[in-house]
Specification:
About 40% of the residues are buried. A six-stranded mixed beta sheet has the order 7-6-1-3-2-8, with helices on one face. By secondary structure, it is an alpha+beta fold. The chain has one domain (about 5-230): Peptide methionine sulphoxide reductase MsrA (Peptide Methionine Sulfoxide Reductase, Chain A, 2-Layer Sandwich), CATH 3.30.1060.10. The protein contains eight helices and eight strands. The two termini are about 25 Å apart. Helix 1 crosses helix 7 (about 200-215), helix 2 (about 55-65) crosses helix 4 and helix 2 packs parallel to helix 7.
Length: about 230
């Protein structure tokens, strides 16, 4: 998503891409091992947040809104300054921001390790450097913005675990960076997938991820998404 023109160009081309490549569906349909290092659910606090980047935030938000234990997902920007956290500016690929989602979840129901399991297996492809599918540029990079030392330790250990097991056909390129700020995206981006399920970009790029979540992790999937509208 590099502005309105790019969205429409991508929409026109993506059907052809999907017809000759398995990347649109198969790459997001892969069970992976659980994180060996994780925080036990027993005795966990009632709420925690995670900020993750992995391509267009429409799909990332849509996927995690279907995960049990998640109570809120906000699409936004992280990695740059507050002053540049605007869609058109981020699209210039000069701000340092990545399109991200802020996930609020109940760690007594779904752990941070399980959030990462969904993230690495069905929400995006962690082996793609500075792009996801048809979207190119560092604002579409794979990155975990850790909010605590515990999150950093779990994420670093999990990536090492998955790389050592050769789970993917290429090394994980996901970046780790301390969270220094998350800025909500413009209102028209929020719940975009839920509001526009027939939008061509969503149909070809993002709905397969939700289907994969349902197939690969049925114990984590819930049919009714938790939306921002429901939180307000």
């Amino acid at each position: 998503m590099q502005g309105t023109l790019r969205i429409w160009l991508v929409t026109a081309a993506v059907a052809a891409i999907c017809s000759v490549s398995s990347a649109c569906a198969d790459a997001v349909d892969k069970p992976i091992p659980a994180a060996k290092l994780d925080v036990p659910k027993a005795g966990a606090p009632a709420s925690e947040t995670a900020v993750l980047a992995g391509g267009c935030f429409w799909g990332m938000q849509g996927v995690f809104e279907h995960v049990k234990g998640v109570t809120k997902v906000v699409a936004g920007y992280s990695g740059g300054a507050k002053e540049t956290a605007h869609y058109e500016m981020v699209g210039t690929e000069t701000t340092g921001h990545a399109e991200s989602v802020q996930i609020t979840f109940d760690p007594r129901v779904v752990s941070f390790g399980e959030i990462l399991r969904v993230y690495f297996s069905v929400a995006h492809d962690p082996t793609e450097l500075n792009y996801q599918g048809p979207d190119h540029g560092p604002s579409y990079r794979s990155e975990i913005f850790y909010a605590s030392q515990t999150q950093e330790t779990i994420a670093r250990a999990y990536m090492a675990q998955l790389n050592a097991a050769h789970v993917f056909g290429a090394p994980i390129v996901t970046r780790l960076e301390k969270l220094n700020g998350f800025y909500a995206a413009e209102g028209y981006h929020q719940d975009f997938l839920v509001k526009n399920p027939s939008y061509p970009y969503i149909v070809y790029n993002d709905l397969p991820k939700i289907d994969a979540l349902k197939r690969v992790w049925p114990s984590l999937y819930r049919d009714k998404p938790v939306t921002l509208a429901a939180n307000n």
